[in-house]
Amino acid sequence: MRIVIAEDNALLREGMVLLLTTNGHEVVATCAAGPEVLPALRTHRPDAAVLDVRLPPTFRDEGLRAAVQARSELPELPILVLSQYVEQAYAAELLAQGARGIGYLLKDRVGRVEQFLEALERIADGGTALDPEVVTEIVSRKAAARPLRSLTPREHEVLEMMAQGLANAAIAERLVVTERAVSKHIRGVFDKLGLPPEGGSVHRRVLAVLAYLDAAAPASPASPAR
């Protein structure tokens, strides 16, 4: 996989380069500031991009802005966004363009090599990879909505795992239940959220759930100062 990395922290940036090349990928360009990102993506047309949300010169939302613009120009480009903290407004803005091939992870996941590589490969395949903490934040913000209030605690758990991009087998393994039980809970989620359960792949199912979660999201506020 050919990858572009945008990260201002030199130690983390070079660490990701080493990690990715060691695992058989090619890092075709690295960027340390926001203005460098789009030119690198346009020039190299990578298979995926890993972008920090906050980059120089202002350390506010340069990485996010680059990601949104990149998806506008290169709609099929898989992008994995890294953030130091859960910034729900940023996640919602990125997902507003469509969640296919989008990942949003907290930076401490990079140190968990298998999780980081799995997320990168998942978005490269057109899937979704949302950090569990980001999903929890989104779900908690929507918890007051009537359809979500109607979900059982177990359906809430299944919904969060679906939004992370997990397939039924992976959800069953985490919850220590059968896949048949997971399918039943998913049907309940779809029914209560008004989402049709039939006709689609796992990714389409995830996109439908994410679309629902994002539908009532408020407009993104002005970017906060660092």
Automatic annotation (TrEMBL):
Coiled coil: none
Transmembrane feature ranges: none
Domain HTH luxR-type stretches: 144-216
Listed Gene3D superfamilies: 3.40.50.2300, Winged helix-like DNA-binding domain superfamily/Winged helix DNA-binding domain
Top-level taxon: Bacteria
Residues annotated with 4-aspartylphosphate modification: 52
Pfam families tied to this protein: GerE, Response_reg
UniProt keyword annotations, A-Z: DNA-binding, Phosphoprotein, Transcription, Transcription regulation
Response regulatory domain segment(s): 2-122
SMART domains: HTH_LUXR, REC
Protein name: Response regulator
Organism from which the protein derives: Streptomyces celluloflavus
